[in-house]
TrEMBL record:
Signal peptide: none annotated. It holds the Pfam family HAD. This is Haloacid dehalogenase-like hydrolase. It comes from the Bacteria. It comes from Nocardioides mangrovi. SUPFAM superfamilies: Adenine nucleotide alpha hydrolases-like, HAD-like.
Length: 471
């Protein structure tokens, strides 16, 4: 897996609009010191430390005490009236969505900065205060931040000194030209633009990691089902290694729907990749037929036991599966264990690519599978504890063909006919429920005609992996 994403954020004029509170505190300080500060002018120059802002208006020896008094006045005058910028909460949530850490690195006095973060509910892992300019680099390096988001040229200096990507927002006092001259890498109008930018940035990083991994492998046989994950992996392997160092293998058995076979071959052929279609014999494995909670272990074991010698015979260094990063943390996945025990590699998982990122990359590459609905093997439709047989798989496939035909004009995306032993349960997209009575009647009639004595539409709608709910 790639290193954890760590993103640093400046506070003043990046996450929060400090100007109103700063004005109020400065006015209160001026009243106490009997000094008429040019409040509006000073507010436009937010970014440098307070001592530097006070230098033109106070004697040098008076500045430390004035700074202390400013910080003491701050909680009563600045916290309640200081808002978060639009997009601040969403920007932090975007980091979390990618499994990242949020580090706030600011020139502000840390206790007052913490009051802002707490008052506004700004999610963060670490706050480091009273650091400015290149001084921020030490904190960013220590925390492993690869991105630093700020609004000032001095934030750019800190990011560059840390070797981090500098992202600047135009909500502070610096212009686009000033930030560009300072060397920032990215300029956004505001934090509302950061989630989309971060999504693309993380996808770029993970695709680069995938390409580097595949290049090191030199050659691969992709365990290819034709679904979005294995199709994207196949395309990535061709990009990294060339079609001559890649082959695809689809295990043909009773569990693979006939409707999946031709599209899978056509897609692989469009990449210039040879498609192998060896037969697999899951049904010969007692554990598979018994259909316990570990059924997928025996299915994947059969597939890898068939593909591994084929890869060796063809001089292909590795067998690769389309397991993604979401699969690896999704809980009960006995098939992943079987593949790992047999030495299969999982490049998508190792690059940290989630299902959503697989689809985003597929769309970016114009792959026709980018929005293909999940299509698990037919045996996944049979309730655990009900024996898997060719006859049961056949009637599930016939029932799904009939139900899909009945719903052809309804905008159907996801469909499963679940074999519960004595009856069938039909799951369709929840947005289509409840079905019109006449439509439901046609759907259920088609399911019964396929060989089920009784059938019903599940009122909860389609749920990927719903059979696991009973485990």
């Amino acid at each position: 897996m790639p290193d954890q994403l760590v993103v640093g954020f400046d506070l003043d004029m990046t996450l929060i609009d400090t100007a109103p509170g700063f004005r109020d505190v400065l006015a209160a300080l001026g009243a106490e010191l009997e000094v008429e500060f040019p409040v509006e002018e000073m507010t436009k120059r937010l970014g440098p430390p307070l001592d530097m802002l006070l230098e033109p208006y106070l004697d040098a020896e008076a500045i430390p005490a004035a700074g202390d008094r400013f910080r003491a006045l701050y909680p009563d005058h600045a916290i309640a009236g200081t808002p978060a910028f639009a997009g601040a909460h969403d920007a932090l949530a975007a980091v979390r969505r990618h499994g990242g850490r949020v580090v706030v690195v600011t020139g502000k006095y840390a206790p007052n900065a913490q009051l802002h973060l707490d008052h506004l509910g700004l999610d963060h892992d670490l706050l480091e205060g009273w650091v400015w300019g290149v001084g921020k680099a030490d904190v960013l390096r220590r925390e492993g931040a690869s991105v630093y988001v700020g609004d000032h040229v001095h934030d750019v200096e800190g990011a560059l000194a840390a070797g981090a990507l500098s992202v600047s927002v135009l909500t502070g006092g610096c212009t686009r030209a000033e930030l560009e001259a300072a060397g920032t890498h990215v300029i956004l109008d505001s934090l509302t633009d950061l989630p989309a930018w971060l999504d693309e940035h993380v996808l770029d990083l993970r695709l680069a990691a995938l390409e580097a991994d595949l290049r090191e492998r030199e050659s691969v046989l992709v365990a290819y089902s034709g679904g979005a994950d294995s199709a994207m992996l196949l395309a990535a392997a061709v990009r990294a290694l060339g079609p001559g160092n890649v082959a695809a293998a689809t295990g043909y058995s009773h569990a693979l729907p006939m409707s999946e076979r031709d599209p899978a071959r056509e897609f692989a052929a469009s990449l210039g990749v040879e498609v192998l279609t060896p037969e697999t014999h899951e049904m010969d494995r007692e554990g598979y037929r018994a259909n316990g909670g570990d059924r997928c272990y025996f299915c994947k074991a059969e597939l890898l036991d068939v593909l591994t010698p084929i890869a060796a015979e063809r001089g292909l260094a590795h067998v690769a599966t389309g397991t993604n990063a979401d699969d690896a943390v999704a809980g009960f996945r006995p098939g992943i264990r079987a593949a790992a025990e047999r030495g299969a590699i999982a490049p998508l998982r190792d690059a940290g690519l989630t299902k959503a990122q697989v689809r985003a990359a597929s769309l970016r590459w114009d792959l026709p599978t980018w929005d293909k609905p999940a299509a698990a093997c037919l045996s996944s439709r049979i309730a655990y504890g009900v024996e898997v047989t060719p006859q049961r798989l056949g009637r599930v496939e016939r029932a799904e063909v009939a139900a899909r035909a009945a719903l052809a004009d309804a905008g159907l995306v996801n469909l499963r006919v679940r074999d519960l032993g004595d009856r069938a349960s039909v799951e369709v997209d929840a947005a289509l429920l409840p079905l019109a009575p006449d439509v439901e009647a046609v759907v259920l009639a088609g399911v019964r005609d396929a060989g089920f004595g009784a059938a019903e539409v599940d009122a909860r709608g389609f749920r990927s992996g719903s059979m696991n709910e009973a485990l």
